[in-house]
Amino acid sequence: MGSIDLGPYPMVDGFQDAADLDEADALRSFADRFVPTEPDLIYLDGNSLGRLPAASVSRVHDVVDREWGDRLIRSWPERWWSLADEIGSQIAPLIGAQPSEVIVADSTSIILFKLTLAALQARPGRSRIVTDDLNFPTDAYATVAAADLAGDRDVVTVSTSDGINGPEDAIIAALDNDTALLTLTHVAFKSGYRYDMDRLTRAAHDVGALVLWDLSHSVGAMPVDLGGAGADLAAGCTYKYLNGGPGSPAFLYVNATIDGEVHNPLSGWWGHENPFEFDLEYRPDASIRRFQTGTMPILSLSAVETGVALTTEAGIKRLREKSVGLSAFFIEQARVHLEPLGFTLASPADPARRGSHVSLRHDDGWRIVQAMIEHGKVIPDFREPDNLRFGFAPLYTSYADLHTAIIRIKNLIAAALPQTYPTTRSAVT
Fold it and tell me: 126, exposed or middle or buried, with CB in 10 Å at 0-12, 13-18, 19+?
Protein backbone atom coordinates (compact mmCIF):
# COMPACT_ATOMS: atom_id res chain seq x y z
CA MET A 1 0.00 0.00 0.00
CA GLY A 2 1.04 3.60 -0.58
CA SER A 3 1.48 6.30 2.03
CA ILE A 4 0.87 10.02 2.50
CA ASP A 5 2.80 12.83 4.09
CA LEU A 6 1.53 13.40 7.63
CA GLY A 7 3.39 16.68 8.16
CA PRO A 8 2.01 20.17 8.49
CA TYR A 9 0.90 22.07 5.44
CA PRO A 10 1.90 25.74 5.90
CA MET A 11 1.57 26.53 2.22
CA VAL A 12 -1.93 25.10 1.83
CA ASP A 13 -4.99 27.36 1.93
CA GLY A 14 -6.36 27.66 5.44
CA PHE A 15 -3.24 26.83 7.42
CA GLN A 16 -2.52 30.36 8.62
CA ASP A 17 -6.20 30.88 9.44
CA ALA A 18 -6.07 27.78 11.63
CA ALA A 19 -2.90 28.93 13.35
CA ASP A 20 -4.37 32.37 14.07
CA LEU A 21 -7.60 30.91 15.44
CA ASP A 22 -5.69 28.55 17.72
CA GLU A 23 -3.57 31.41 19.02
CA ALA A 24 -6.73 33.33 19.95
CA ASP A 25 -8.47 30.28 21.50
CA ALA A 26 -9.21 30.93 25.19
CA LEU A 27 -9.63 27.16 25.76
CA ARG A 28 -6.41 25.99 24.08
CA SER A 29 -4.71 25.03 27.37
CA PHE A 30 -7.38 22.43 28.18
CA ALA A 31 -5.99 20.06 25.54
CA ASP A 32 -2.91 19.59 27.73
CA ARG A 33 -5.09 18.14 30.49
CA PHE A 34 -5.86 15.00 28.51
CA VAL A 35 -3.69 11.89 28.21
CA PRO A 36 -1.46 12.28 25.12
CA THR A 37 -2.32 10.14 22.12
CA GLU A 38 0.11 8.56 19.67
CA PRO A 39 2.19 11.05 17.65
CA ASP A 40 0.46 12.68 14.66
CA LEU A 41 -2.96 11.23 15.58
CA ILE A 42 -5.91 13.55 15.07
CA TYR A 43 -8.94 12.41 17.06
CA LEU A 44 -12.26 13.62 15.67
CA ASP A 45 -14.60 11.10 17.30
CA GLY A 46 -15.44 13.02 20.47
CA ASN A 47 -19.13 12.73 19.60
CA SER A 48 -18.84 8.96 20.17
CA LEU A 49 -16.16 8.68 22.85
CA GLY A 50 -14.30 11.56 24.47
CA ARG A 51 -10.60 11.45 25.22
CA LEU A 52 -9.20 10.44 28.61
CA PRO A 53 -8.69 13.33 31.07
CA ALA A 54 -5.40 13.00 32.94
CA ALA A 55 -7.24 13.69 36.20
CA SER A 56 -9.44 10.63 35.61
CA VAL A 57 -6.38 8.37 35.72
CA SER A 58 -5.35 9.52 39.18
CA ARG A 59 -8.97 9.61 40.37
CA VAL A 60 -9.70 6.03 39.33
CA HIS A 61 -6.36 4.87 40.78
CA ASP A 62 -7.33 6.48 44.08
CA VAL A 63 -10.70 4.74 44.05
CA VAL A 64 -9.04 1.39 43.33
CA ASP A 65 -6.06 1.71 45.67
CA ARG A 66 -7.46 3.66 48.59
CA GLU A 67 -11.28 3.68 48.55
CA TRP A 68 -11.62 0.05 47.45
CA GLY A 69 -8.25 -1.43 48.45
CA ASP A 70 -7.91 0.25 51.83
CA ARG A 71 -11.32 1.44 52.94
CA LEU A 72 -13.25 -1.48 51.42
CA ILE A 73 -16.94 -1.44 52.27
CA ARG A 74 -16.43 1.58 54.54
CA SER A 75 -16.27 3.67 51.35
CA TRP A 76 -19.98 3.24 50.80
CA PRO A 77 -21.11 5.53 53.63
CA GLU A 78 -18.01 7.71 53.29
CA ARG A 79 -18.58 8.67 49.66
CA TRP A 80 -19.89 6.09 47.24
CA TRP A 81 -23.53 6.05 48.32
CA SER A 82 -24.09 9.71 47.43
CA LEU A 83 -21.77 9.93 44.41
CA ALA A 84 -24.52 9.59 41.76
CA ASP A 85 -26.53 12.34 43.45
CA GLU A 86 -23.51 14.64 43.67
CA ILE A 87 -22.55 14.21 40.02
CA GLY A 88 -26.17 14.70 38.97
CA SER A 89 -26.09 18.02 40.82
CA GLN A 90 -22.90 18.95 38.96
CA ILE A 91 -24.47 18.12 35.59
CA ALA A 92 -27.65 20.09 36.36
CA PRO A 93 -26.27 23.59 35.52
CA LEU A 94 -25.01 22.28 32.17
CA ILE A 95 -28.56 21.38 31.11
CA GLY A 96 -30.58 24.18 32.70
CA ALA A 97 -31.91 22.08 35.56
CA GLN A 98 -32.10 22.27 39.33
CA PRO A 99 -29.73 19.96 41.25
CA SER A 100 -32.70 18.09 42.71
CA GLU A 101 -33.96 17.24 39.19
CA VAL A 102 -30.93 15.29 37.92
CA ILE A 103 -29.25 12.05 38.94
CA VAL A 104 -26.82 9.62 37.34
CA ALA A 105 -28.40 6.20 37.00
CA ASP A 106 -28.22 3.44 34.39
CA SER A 107 -27.14 3.28 30.74
CA THR A 108 -28.80 5.71 28.32
CA SER A 109 -30.90 2.93 26.80
CA ILE A 110 -32.25 1.76 30.15
CA ILE A 111 -33.01 5.32 31.24
CA LEU A 112 -34.85 6.03 27.99
CA PHE A 113 -36.94 2.90 28.47
CA LYS A 114 -37.74 3.76 32.09
CA LEU A 115 -38.67 7.36 31.34
CA THR A 116 -40.75 6.43 28.28
CA LEU A 117 -42.74 3.86 30.23
CA ALA A 118 -43.11 6.28 33.14
CA ALA A 119 -44.50 8.92 30.75
CA LEU A 120 -46.97 6.48 29.22
CA GLN A 121 -48.18 5.43 32.66
CA ALA A 122 -48.70 9.11 33.48
CA ARG A 123 -50.95 9.52 30.40
CA PRO A 124 -53.11 6.35 30.59
CA GLY A 125 -55.93 7.61 28.36
CA ARG A 126 -53.69 8.42 25.41
CA SER A 127 -52.51 5.91 22.81
CA ARG A 128 -49.94 7.69 20.61
CA ILE A 129 -46.19 8.30 20.89
CA VAL A 130 -44.64 10.67 18.35
CA THR A 131 -41.00 10.55 17.29
CA ASP A 132 -38.97 10.97 14.09
CA ASP A 133 -36.63 8.96 11.86
CA LEU A 134 -33.55 11.00 12.84
CA ASN A 135 -33.68 9.55 16.34
CA PHE A 136 -30.89 7.24 17.43
CA PRO A 137 -31.95 3.59 16.95
CA THR A 138 -31.77 2.71 20.65
CA ASP A 139 -34.26 5.50 21.34
CA ALA A 140 -36.62 3.92 18.83
CA TYR A 141 -36.06 0.44 20.27
CA ALA A 142 -36.76 1.64 23.81
CA THR A 143 -39.86 3.52 22.65
CA VAL A 144 -41.33 0.48 20.90
CA ALA A 145 -40.49 -1.81 23.84
CA ALA A 146 -42.14 0.58 26.32
CA ALA A 147 -45.18 0.96 24.05
CA ASP A 148 -45.54 -2.82 23.81
CA LEU A 149 -45.29 -3.22 27.57
CA ALA A 150 -47.78 -0.43 28.22
CA GLY A 151 -50.23 -1.97 25.74
CA ASP A 152 -52.51 -0.32 23.15
CA ARG A 153 -49.94 2.35 22.26
CA ASP A 154 -48.94 3.29 18.74
CA VAL A 155 -45.58 4.76 17.77
CA VAL A 156 -45.88 7.40 15.04
CA THR A 157 -42.55 8.03 13.30
CA VAL A 158 -42.39 11.27 11.32
CA SER A 159 -40.03 11.14 8.34
CA THR A 160 -37.52 13.77 7.30
CA SER A 161 -37.41 14.81 3.66
CA ASP A 162 -33.62 15.01 3.31
CA GLY A 163 -32.09 12.93 6.12
CA ILE A 164 -30.48 16.07 7.52
CA ASN A 165 -33.00 18.54 8.87
CA GLY A 166 -35.54 17.63 11.52
CA PRO A 167 -39.15 17.66 10.26
CA GLU A 168 -40.33 20.07 12.94
CA ASP A 169 -43.47 21.29 11.20
CA ALA A 170 -44.55 17.73 10.42
CA ILE A 171 -43.87 16.65 14.00
CA ILE A 172 -46.06 19.43 15.34
CA ALA A 173 -48.77 18.51 12.84
CA ALA A 174 -48.65 14.90 14.09
CA LEU A 175 -49.39 15.90 17.69
CA ASP A 176 -53.00 15.62 18.82
CA ASN A 177 -55.11 15.13 21.93
CA ASP A 178 -54.41 11.40 21.82
CA THR A 179 -50.62 11.91 22.04
CA ALA A 180 -49.12 10.75 25.31
CA LEU A 181 -45.46 11.49 24.59
CA LEU A 182 -43.18 13.29 22.15
CA THR A 183 -39.66 11.80 22.25
CA LEU A 184 -36.76 13.27 20.28
CA THR A 185 -32.99 13.57 20.27
CA HIS A 186 -32.00 17.20 20.86
CA VAL A 187 -29.12 16.94 18.37
CA ALA A 188 -29.58 14.28 15.70
CA PHE A 189 -26.86 11.64 15.87
CA LYS A 190 -26.15 11.43 12.14
CA SER A 191 -26.56 14.94 10.73
CA GLY A 192 -26.04 17.04 13.87
CA TYR A 193 -29.38 18.83 13.36
CA ARG A 194 -30.37 20.78 16.47
CA TYR A 195 -34.06 20.80 17.30
CA ASP A 196 -35.84 23.87 18.61
CA MET A 197 -36.49 22.53 22.10
CA ASP A 198 -38.65 25.46 23.18
CA ARG A 199 -40.95 25.29 20.16
CA LEU A 200 -41.48 21.54 20.18
CA THR A 201 -41.95 21.30 23.94
CA ARG A 202 -44.57 24.04 23.77
CA ALA A 203 -46.38 22.28 20.92
CA ALA A 204 -46.51 19.00 22.86
CA HIS A 205 -47.78 20.71 25.99
CA ASP A 206 -50.48 22.47 23.96
CA VAL A 207 -52.08 19.06 23.35
CA GLY A 208 -51.42 17.78 26.88
CA ALA A 209 -48.51 15.46 25.97
CA LEU A 210 -45.25 14.98 27.85
CA VAL A 211 -41.84 15.46 26.18
CA LEU A 212 -38.70 13.34 26.54
CA TRP A 213 -35.37 14.71 25.19
CA ASP A 214 -32.21 12.69 24.54
CA LEU A 215 -29.28 15.06 25.23
CA SER A 216 -26.47 12.65 24.34
CA HIS A 217 -25.09 14.76 21.48
CA SER A 218 -25.56 18.15 23.11
CA VAL A 219 -24.60 17.95 26.80
CA GLY A 220 -21.09 19.26 27.35
CA ALA A 221 -20.80 20.93 23.94
CA MET A 222 -23.63 23.44 23.91
CA PRO A 223 -26.02 25.17 26.31
CA VAL A 224 -29.21 23.30 27.12
CA ASP A 225 -32.06 24.91 29.04
CA LEU A 226 -34.51 22.21 30.04
CA GLY A 227 -36.05 24.38 32.73
CA GLY A 228 -36.46 27.37 30.43
CA ALA A 229 -38.13 25.20 27.80
CA GLY A 230 -40.38 23.54 30.37
CA ALA A 231 -39.16 20.10 29.26
CA ASP A 232 -40.63 17.21 31.23
CA LEU A 233 -38.03 14.45 30.95
CA ALA A 234 -34.52 14.02 29.60
CA ALA A 235 -31.69 11.51 29.40
CA GLY A 236 -28.08 11.88 28.36
CA CYS A 237 -24.85 9.93 28.20
CA THR A 238 -21.56 10.94 29.84
CA TYR A 239 -18.98 9.24 27.60
CA LYS A 240 -19.09 11.72 24.70
CA TYR A 241 -18.42 15.42 25.35
CA LEU A 242 -18.35 14.87 29.13
CA ASN A 243 -15.39 12.48 28.73
CA GLY A 244 -16.62 9.97 31.31
CA GLY A 245 -15.07 6.95 29.59
CA PRO A 246 -16.42 3.95 27.65
CA GLY A 247 -19.70 2.66 29.04
CA SER A 248 -19.91 5.32 31.73
CA PRO A 249 -23.39 5.64 33.27
CA ALA A 250 -25.95 8.10 31.95
CA PHE A 251 -28.06 10.70 33.73
CA LEU A 252 -31.76 11.45 33.83
CA TYR A 253 -33.84 14.55 34.44
CA VAL A 254 -37.38 14.86 35.75
CA ASN A 255 -38.95 18.31 35.89
CA ALA A 256 -40.01 19.11 39.45
CA THR A 257 -43.41 20.31 38.22
CA ILE A 258 -44.37 16.76 37.20
CA ASP A 259 -42.60 15.08 40.08
CA GLY A 260 -45.76 13.47 41.40
CA GLU A 261 -46.95 12.26 37.98
CA VAL A 262 -44.09 9.99 36.92
CA HIS A 263 -42.77 6.95 38.73
CA ASN A 264 -39.87 4.59 38.18
CA PRO A 265 -41.32 1.50 36.46
CA LEU A 266 -38.29 -0.60 37.40
CA SER A 267 -38.19 -0.61 41.18
CA GLY A 268 -34.93 -1.42 42.90
CA TRP A 269 -33.43 -1.13 46.33
CA TRP A 270 -31.44 2.00 45.47
CA GLY A 271 -34.69 3.83 44.83
CA HIS A 272 -36.26 2.82 48.13
CA GLU A 273 -36.89 5.57 50.70
CA ASN A 274 -34.91 3.57 53.27
CA PRO A 275 -32.89 0.91 51.42
CA PHE A 276 -31.09 -0.38 54.49
CA GLU A 277 -34.36 -1.18 56.17
CA PHE A 278 -34.54 -4.12 53.73
CA ASP A 279 -38.32 -3.97 53.72
CA LEU A 280 -39.95 -6.34 51.21
CA GLU A 281 -42.54 -3.67 50.46
CA TYR A 282 -41.20 -1.09 48.00
CA ARG A 283 -41.67 2.54 49.04
CA PRO A 284 -40.10 4.97 46.56
CA ASP A 285 -37.84 7.74 47.76
CA ALA A 286 -39.52 11.15 47.58
CA SER A 287 -36.55 12.65 45.71
CA ILE A 288 -35.15 12.07 42.20
CA ARG A 289 -33.30 9.15 43.78
CA ARG A 290 -36.44 7.04 43.30
CA PHE A 291 -35.40 6.64 39.66
CA GLN A 292 -32.35 4.68 40.75
CA THR A 293 -32.64 0.92 40.45
CA GLY A 294 -29.49 -1.06 41.20
CA THR A 295 -26.00 -0.56 42.57
CA MET A 296 -23.98 2.05 40.67
CA PRO A 297 -20.66 1.19 38.90
CA ILE A 298 -18.39 3.19 41.18
CA LEU A 299 -15.17 2.93 39.18
CA SER A 300 -16.82 4.29 36.04
CA LEU A 301 -18.85 6.82 37.98
CA SER A 302 -15.68 8.24 39.49
CA ALA A 303 -14.29 9.01 36.03
CA VAL A 304 -17.49 10.86 35.14
CA GLU A 305 -16.85 13.23 38.03
CA THR A 306 -13.54 14.47 36.62
CA GLY A 307 -14.96 14.81 33.12
CA VAL A 308 -17.87 16.92 34.33
CA ALA A 309 -15.49 19.06 36.39
CA LEU A 310 -13.42 19.90 33.28
CA THR A 311 -16.55 20.91 31.37
CA THR A 312 -17.77 23.06 34.23
CA GLU A 313 -14.41 24.79 34.55
CA ALA A 314 -14.25 25.59 30.84
CA GLY A 315 -17.79 27.00 30.86
CA ILE A 316 -20.53 25.89 28.53
CA LYS A 317 -20.80 29.31 26.84
CA ARG A 318 -17.12 29.28 25.84
CA LEU A 319 -17.39 25.66 24.75
CA ARG A 320 -20.31 26.47 22.47
CA GLU A 321 -18.57 29.49 20.97
CA LYS A 322 -15.54 27.38 20.10
CA SER A 323 -17.73 24.53 18.80
CA VAL A 324 -19.46 26.91 16.38
CA GLY A 325 -16.10 28.26 15.26
CA LEU A 326 -14.62 24.79 14.72
CA SER A 327 -17.57 23.51 12.69
CA ALA A 328 -17.73 26.67 10.55
CA PHE A 329 -13.99 26.45 9.82
CA PHE A 330 -14.25 22.74 8.98
CA ILE A 331 -17.20 23.24 6.64
CA GLU A 332 -15.39 26.03 4.78
CA GLN A 333 -12.17 24.02 4.43
CA ALA A 334 -14.16 20.98 3.27
CA ARG A 335 -15.85 23.15 0.65
CA VAL A 336 -12.49 24.30 -0.69
CA HIS A 337 -10.53 21.05 -0.53
CA LEU A 338 -13.01 18.16 -0.48
CA GLU A 339 -16.08 19.25 -2.40
CA PRO A 340 -14.20 18.90 -5.75
CA LEU A 341 -13.50 15.28 -4.75
CA GLY A 342 -17.18 14.31 -4.42
CA PHE A 343 -17.86 15.20 -0.79
CA THR A 344 -21.12 16.94 0.13
CA LEU A 345 -22.27 18.50 3.40
CA ALA A 346 -24.73 16.29 5.30
CA SER A 347 -25.27 18.65 8.23
CA PRO A 348 -27.19 21.92 8.54
CA ALA A 349 -25.28 24.90 7.13
CA ASP A 350 -26.83 27.21 9.75
CA PRO A 351 -24.77 27.00 13.00
CA ALA A 352 -27.89 27.77 15.05
CA ARG A 353 -29.31 24.49 13.75
CA ARG A 354 -26.14 22.45 14.25
CA GLY A 355 -24.63 20.67 17.22
CA SER A 356 -20.90 19.97 17.64
CA HIS A 357 -20.41 17.41 14.89
CA VAL A 358 -20.44 17.65 11.11
CA SER A 359 -21.20 14.91 8.60
CA LEU A 360 -19.90 14.73 5.05
CA ARG A 361 -21.28 12.33 2.46
CA HIS A 362 -19.25 10.43 -0.10
CA ASP A 363 -20.21 7.43 -2.23
CA ASP A 364 -17.04 5.68 -1.06
CA GLY A 365 -17.31 6.91 2.52
CA TRP A 366 -16.69 3.56 4.22
CA ARG A 367 -13.38 2.91 2.50
CA ILE A 368 -12.24 6.51 2.90
CA VAL A 369 -12.76 6.24 6.66
CA GLN A 370 -10.69 3.04 6.81
CA ALA A 371 -7.86 4.71 4.88
CA MET A 372 -8.08 7.76 7.14
CA ILE A 373 -7.66 5.69 10.28
CA GLU A 374 -4.87 3.41 9.04
CA HIS A 375 -2.88 5.70 6.75
CA GLY A 376 -4.00 9.24 7.55
CA LYS A 377 -3.99 8.92 11.35
CA VAL A 378 -7.32 10.70 11.48
CA ILE A 379 -10.13 9.06 13.48
CA PRO A 380 -13.70 10.04 12.64
CA ASP A 381 -16.53 7.53 12.50
CA PHE A 382 -18.81 6.19 9.78
CA ARG A 383 -22.59 6.08 9.78
CA GLU A 384 -24.62 4.28 7.14
CA PRO A 385 -25.10 4.64 4.30
CA ASP A 386 -22.33 7.07 3.31
CA ASN A 387 -21.69 9.48 6.22
CA LEU A 388 -18.26 10.43 7.45
CA ARG A 389 -18.97 11.95 10.87
CA PHE A 390 -16.54 14.37 12.54
CA GLY A 391 -17.02 15.26 16.20
CA PHE A 392 -15.45 18.47 17.47
CA ALA A 393 -14.80 18.40 21.22
CA PRO A 394 -14.02 22.02 22.11
CA LEU A 395 -11.98 21.03 25.16
CA TYR A 396 -9.22 19.49 23.06
CA THR A 397 -9.88 19.86 19.30
CA SER A 398 -7.81 22.56 17.59
CA TYR A 399 -8.31 24.41 14.31
CA ALA A 400 -4.96 23.00 13.14
CA ASP A 401 -6.34 19.50 13.79
CA LEU A 402 -9.20 20.18 11.40
CA HIS A 403 -7.10 21.75 8.68
CA THR A 404 -4.50 18.99 8.80
CA ALA A 405 -7.21 16.29 8.79
CA ILE A 406 -8.80 17.70 5.64
CA ILE A 407 -5.47 17.90 3.81
CA ARG A 408 -4.65 14.33 4.82
CA ILE A 409 -8.01 13.17 3.44
CA LYS A 410 -7.28 15.02 0.21
CA ASN A 411 -3.83 13.45 -0.09
CA LEU A 412 -4.90 9.88 0.66
CA ILE A 413 -7.57 10.10 -2.02
CA ALA A 414 -4.96 11.44 -4.45
CA ALA A 415 -2.85 8.39 -3.59
CA ALA A 416 -5.87 6.09 -4.29
CA LEU A 417 -5.51 4.47 -0.85
CA PRO A 418 -9.27 4.02 -0.20
CA GLN A 419 -9.47 1.74 -3.27
CA THR A 420 -7.17 -0.75 -1.56
CA TYR A 421 -9.83 -1.53 1.06
CA PRO A 422 -12.76 -3.96 0.69
CA THR A 423 -16.29 -2.58 0.56
CA THR A 424 -17.44 -5.05 3.25
CA ARG A 425 -18.30 -3.29 6.53
CA SER A 426 -16.92 -4.47 9.85
CA ALA A 427 -19.24 -5.23 12.77
CA VAL A 428 -18.15 -2.06 14.61
CA THR A 429 -18.10 1.14 12.56
Answer: buried
Question: Which position among 45, 214, 381, 401 bears the catalytic label?
Answer: 214
| Domain 15-33+315-420, CATH number (from 3.30.300.20, 3.30.470.20, 3.90.1150.10, 1.10.3720.10) | 3.90.1150.10
Q: What is the mean pLDDT of residues 227-236?
A: 98
Centroid of chain to Cα 341: 30
* Residue 341: burial class (beta carbons within 10 Å; 0-12, 13-18, 19+): middle
CA 398 to chain centre: 20
Burial of residue 32, with CB atoms counted within 10 A of its CB: 0-12 exposed, 13-18 middle, 19 or more buried: exposed
Is residue 141 part of the annotated active site? The answer reads: no
Query: pLDDT tens for residues 341-359?
Result: 999 999 999 999 999 999 9
Backbone angles phi, psi at 114, to 5 degrees: -60, -45
On the question of pLDDT at 260 being above 60, the answer is: yes
The amino acid at residue 264 is N
Residue 214 appears among annotated catalytic residues:
yes
CATH topology of domain 57-312: Aspartate Aminotransferase; domain 2 (3.40.640)
Please pick, among 9, 34, 113, 136, the residue that the annotation labels catalytic. 136
Give yes or no: 399 in active site: no
* Residue-range domain boundaries for the chain: 15-33+315-420, 57-312
Catalytic residue among 389, 390, 392, 401: 389
Sign of CA dihedral 14, 382, 44, 353: positive
pLDDT digits (tens, 9 = 90+) for 170-193: 999 999 999 999 999 999 999 999
Which pLDDT score is estimated for 9?
66
